[in-house]
Amino acid sequence: MRIRPLAILALLMLVSCSPRARHAVPAGTVPDIFPDYVGVTVPATVAPLDFTLDGARALDVRVVAPDGTQFCSRGRQSTRFPAGRWARLLARSAGASLSVTVSGLYDGGWKSFEPFSIHVSADPIDYGLTFRMLEPGYEIYSRMGIYERELSSFRQRALLENTQFDGCLNCHSYNRGNPDSLSLHVRGSHGATLLKLGDDLRAYDTKTDSTLGFCVYPYWHPSGRYIAYATNSTRQSFHVRPDKLIEVFDLDSDMQIYDVEHNQLITAPQVKQADLWETFPAFSADGRTLYFTAASRVEIPAGLTGLRYNLMKVSFDPETGTIGQDVETVIDAASRMKSVAFPRPSYDGRFLIYTLSDYGTFPIWHHEADLWVLDLQTGESRPLDEVNSPDTDSYHAWSGNSRWIVFSSRRTDGLYTRLYIAHFDENGVAGKPFMLPQRNPRKYYDDLFFSYNVPEFVSGPVRLDRIRAQKLINAPERVKFGFRWSD
Amino acid sequence: MNRTQKIAGALMTVLSGAAVYSFFALRYPYHLHFQEQYQLFEFTWGYFSGVAGVPGGLADWAGRFLTQFCYYAPAGAAVTALVFCALQLLTWAACRQRTLPVYALSFLPSAILLVFLCDEHSLLGGPVALILALAASVLCRRVASARVRRVTEAVLVPALYMACGPLVVVFVLVRILDEGGRGGRIVALAAVLLAIAALCPPVAARLFPYPLGRLYLGVHYYRYHNILPGLLWISALGVVVTVLVSLSKGRILSGTLRGVLVFACVAGAGTFFTLRTADPVKEEWMRYDFMVRMQMWNRIMMAADRRNPDNPKTVSCLNLALSKTGRMPDHQFEYFQNGPEGLLPEFVGDCTNPVSTGEIYWHLGMVNTAQRFAFEAQEAIPDFQKSARFYQRLAQTNIVNGDTDVARKYLKALTHTAFYRKWARETLSLLDAGTVFEQRPELARARDLRLREHDFFFSGTEMDSMLGLLKVENPSNTMALDYLMAWCLLRKDLDRFVECIGLVEAPVMPKAYQEALLLRWVLTHSNFEGLPAYLSPDNALRINNFIVDMQAKSPEEEMRRKYGDTYWFYYYYRYRSSTQ
Fold first, then answer.
1. Are B82 and B166 in contact (CB under 8 A)?
2. B273 — contact with chain A (CB < 8 Å)?
3. Domain B282-449 belongs to what architecture?
4. What is the pLDDT of residue A14?
5. Across chain A, how many H-helices and E-strands are there?
6. Where is average pLDDT lowest: A129-133, B26-30, B468-472?
7. Are the Cβ atoms of B368 and A239 closer than 8 angstroms?
8. Partners of A393 in the beta sheet?
9. d(CA B543, CA A77)
10. Which of A162, B185, B300, B352 could form an S-S bond across to B321 if both were Cys, CB 3.0 to 4.6 Å?
11. Is the pTM value of this prediction over 0.90?
12. Which CATH class is domain A4-121?
């Protein structure tokens, strides 16, 4: 038995892309690979899409570009596509497809599978992603952090981790992926909202006497002058039935807009109604409309399953910082016994993607949650079936050019959230999403006990001085937010 | 040292090691189990690189490696004794004067370390770091060339900082003392070594996500990062002081008798402070928790018969054992009860309280709650470690809930451990074969007992409703009934108790229930006329006597002696709820 790995390696050396592998028994199907990259659409600058072939003791892969350029990869557990050759192959294939042929070594010998395609889009994608990573837990948190991942490689680095202070790293948001405009909320005994504007980094106390609580769920105004926040009194309850675990809900919530120039929170009675819970704000691409979700107040916990949020909008004047008087319902989900969360308009102003679940404000714990897309020109709304799965598909963000979305999904095991990226064309049609690539992805994701959370595209590396941020968080001083009512 | 002194020294080491072993194996074994359950040591490169890749990480990894043997208390005790002896022998090896009193004095750091290890949150990474720093110092001493030695020392400081953390200062100080003892000029060396050591944390702060304070005082020496492991640092100081004292050339540190006296003093002080620091209350709770984990129900009963527990966490373990052995309805009030907290303790967000409470919910069939408690306890581990015990429970709850992909994640991690590997591999095989519920009866039991028809949110204030539903959905869940009735009784809610009594199907009304019903009868009737037949006349007579004695204002102690095994005594003399 000891010599088996060596023997397999030797065998692989001999047979990879060799006549023996080519003369393998045809399986007649496309391979069952993990992650499922069969037919996905990828940007031309994505890191190698390594994969494993479930059930096979070894695999042998040939990747061919439309111009005939090709390379082979073989491995015992996973492919290991050479990064340089992969990048060159993708660059040559932009706007076309790669053909991938896989052979696998099973107990009965080699099998060759039907080739499959990987579509390489000509639409560029942003530099990378940032996201929170933490265990998908209940109330108590262990180690967590905000991390940055370069999409053209496997490079990932921590921006900030809670080993540096006592607290929970929470919502983080950039202005259209601009890494120099960051809002980051920290909860706990050292709670603060960090605002990074260029090289300036400050810690704020966002709670004022006139507002409900701390500012969460940030969304930047395209001008960079305002940040819309919700303020929520959030609680959790725990189901006793096996198919459900956690319910996160608000006991109250309001909306407010922070004026960065004047250090003032602005709110208005129409987005701070006592019998309406408003949350998840997002500015439109032109910055003149504020989308958010709102639900009629219910008794908690008795009315929780009847708590349903609609998609709303209100006008906003960025010149004066005035919130419009008329709040309109954009999607009346409650009448369809559904609930909207996380509205995110595309930056080209054409579409809006949101999460739809049966009830509540936190679809991450709802297996039925799916992504839906709203055409802002026609007003039509449809499920984004191209990317949805039977399990939770939730938090999403747009790339800077609105041609890609990243979203979180629990489709692999029902609990651990993984990131998927999908192409989104100008007609509102999404390509098949691909899982965030990793070297030896089966092992990586099996060994990973963190969930990905709140993914955001960034156009370049985030230059956050970790030590300065740590000092700011650990220090007691906070800049207080001012407050004014909207005219 | 002459031959006699050498034998005496060896005897001191052997006897001390044996004493340390005996203390941990016989008097403090459950603290060892406690240590083990708050880590998940995996034999993988990823685990090693993750742990060892921070300042002090190698020592931390080695400490965790050793801690895993605490799964078996005798092995854990042996490891502790070895650590004790290793530190003593290395301290001795670092000393210049080779006399029996110095040898005896070399027990001082180990004795302090022993007191440190009595704290359940002390991590073995600290002692291992101390040993590594000292071992490096002793090895450095063997380098004959002064130039090579000094270069080695300078290079070793940052390397040891990475391996041992800030306890590298022991290496620095011992090297300075040793070089001084050789008669060399040490000012320049001391300045260089101390400067390098002092620079290590600020440099590390640029590379690793820890505050500077932790990088100066140790990242993984103690489970709580905001508590300074003072005794560990005093032990380190003890090493330096011992080496310093050994530089003295005076005659005071010579002679067999003086050696024995010094040893007696160190051993006496070590024993005194160890016994004073050892916490028998925590040890008792850890013992009960261990017995619950291992499902040693009869041993719990025996332990409670020897000494009646009174801590809510311990009492909750006893009540679980009473229910699991079918004795709760009859015998619960024969033991001290401290209210509903001693039946189902409220959730507390730390790494200890939810542990045994989660076990109760697991046995009750409240699988989601058991899962939450295990998960939360694990997340609350202050030094962010994971726990093999909790991984095991999370694998079980996920299997029962049908989330087998998640269960496999936990099981795969457990296959990389030394002591959970077999169970994890077997369970994975059973999952593959689809026979896990046939081969693992406790999983099948939990699957059958859990709620399927009703859904509600867990609420500590509506425990009776939850327990009632468990019983209604699964009539065979007698434990839910035990807990429902006990919950009502412990809260002194006799009206609710009477509402639920219809669920009891026992041929003979259990003793505690009879007593509760009799008490309610007495409270609502003027005499015993019409007393139901299932209430025994003997008990009726006894409650009558109880009332007479109580009205006569008999002292509580006498009441306890005569009626301490009854519900009435609990009702009138124990547990005052906030509403009463």
1. no
2. no
3. Alpha Horseshoe (1.25)
4. 43
5. 5, 35
6. B468-472
7. yes
8. A409
9. 74
10. B300
11. yes
12. mainly beta
